[in-house]
Design a protein that fits this description.
It is built from ten helices and nine strands. The strands form two sheets. It has a seven-stranded antiparallel sheet with strand order 2-1-9-8-7-6-5, sandwiched between helices. The protein has a two-stranded antiparallel sheet with strand order 3-4. The protein has 367 residues and is an alpha+beta fold. Helix 2 runs antiparallel to helix 9 and helix 3 packs across helix 6.
């Protein structure tokens, strides 16, 4: 009953947003740029790319430095780690393969591929792609640091029963990715290039490092603003190795909003609740009613209208997007800083106006 009510309220809100008058464009780009530059300085964020889109118009901001202490300015083609924003790409790719008949959302994944890391976990037999995309597998976020040498062979154990509650899981997305690779006989980066990057003209995006990135890639930075190691990912993982630009990711985001490349019924799975995101280990809070989860992306009921959203955090790179399907309006930003997400609410209020956007409070409650 709760899930039905959530779907009804979300759909009603989308219709109302679509019928509301078109908002006037924000102030001059120069004014916004100055405000963003002041925010970067305040939060010790060396560099950022941001794209604000409304209807068919996109305004692009390239701010700050690729590496603190250098003269290397962030440009439109500067590559950032997009971290967990790659999960939405993996979700979209999965839905495209579902449309092609490669797999079904509600068929247990272990019937497609005997994932070695789950052979000692009998409850994993119930996990489906739909559970992965909606973060209800019961798997942990990470069994250990995914950059460690032993991670990829570490046995996995469920923390919660499958489909019992919401628990964010990078490990689940890796399980799904490995299943897709097995079913297609292709590496994940090849699949992403074939199903997402090439069709959407995302020329600066990859899940593995390219030599071409060397001349214009950003360094990450710690909370003090000092540069960190520049990682060159050699193995593709949809959960955390996406390398992209804000402009590229904006193209992808517009495809999600319009359902481009997906059957109409499949496209709706990215915009409607799959579950109410009742968190496994967090007691109910005041923001719970505002957050749900679709098949691959978060949903939020905000003062600006119903939105889809996702954050990315690789430690020294952080990013975020929020998009409003009923308004054809979106914001995506990528930063080269451990402080990037601290700016989220101020950025949303700068472009969308004062109000409650819920997501940062909800994430803070989960720590």
């Amino acid at each position: 009953m709760k899930a039905f009510l959530l779907l009804f309220l979300w759909t009603t809100a989308l219709v109302a947003a679509a019928q509301s008058p078109h908002r006037a464009a924000p102030g001059a780009k120069a004014t916004k740029q100055a405000q963003l530059e002041a925010l970067l300085k305040q939060e010790k964020v060396p560099g950022m790319q941001l794209v604000y889109s409304q209807k068919a118009a996109a305004t692009v901001y390239n701010l700050g430095l690729r590496k603190s202490g250098s003269a290397e300015a962030v440009e439109a083609g500067t590559t950032f780690q997009a971290a967990s924003l790659g999960k939405v790409v993996l979700a979209y790719l999965t839905l495209r393969l579902c449309d092609q008949g490669v797999l079904k959302l509600d068929t247990p994944l272990l019937t497609y591929y005997a994932y070695p890391r789950l052979q000692q976990e009998p409850r994993a037999a119930n996990i489906t792609a739909r559970m992965v995309l909606a973060h209800t597998t019961g798997l942990p976020n990470w069994a250990e640091n995914p950059l460690s040498a032993s991670w990829s062979t570490t046995p996995l154990h469920l923390r919660y029963a499958p489909d019992s509650c919401w628990n964010y899981s990078g490990e689940a997305y890796v399980f799904l990715q490995k299943t897709l690779e097995h079913l297609t006989g292709k590496s994940f980066n090849t699949l992403a290039q074939q199903e997402v990057f090439a069709p959407l003209q995302m020329a600066h995006s990859s899940f593995v490092w390219r030599d071409a990135f060397t001349t214009n890639a950003s360094f990450g930075h710690d909370a003090a603003g000092k540069p960190t190691q520049q990682l060159h990912f050699t193995a593709p993982y949809g959960a955390f190795t996406l390398l992209s630009t804000a402009s590229d990711y904006n193209r992808f985001l517009q495809a999600v909003l319009t359902g481009k490349g997906l059957a109409p019924a499949t496209a709706k799975l990215l915009l409607t609740p799959a579950n109410p995101a009742n968190r496994c280990r967090v007691p109910p809070t005041s923001t719970d009613a505002a957050i749900a989860w679709a098949c691959g992306v978060g949903l939020a009921t905000t003062s600006h209208g119903p939105a889809i959203w996702q954050w990315g955090d690789n430690g020294d790179f952080q990013g975020f997007f929020m998009a409003f399907p009923g308004k054809q309006e979106s914001i995506v930003f990528l930063t080269n800083s451990a402080n990037g997400l601290k700016m989220t609410d101020k950025i949303l209020q700068l472009f969308l106006g004062p109000g409650q956007y819920q997501t940062m409070q909800w994430l803070a409650e989960d720590k």
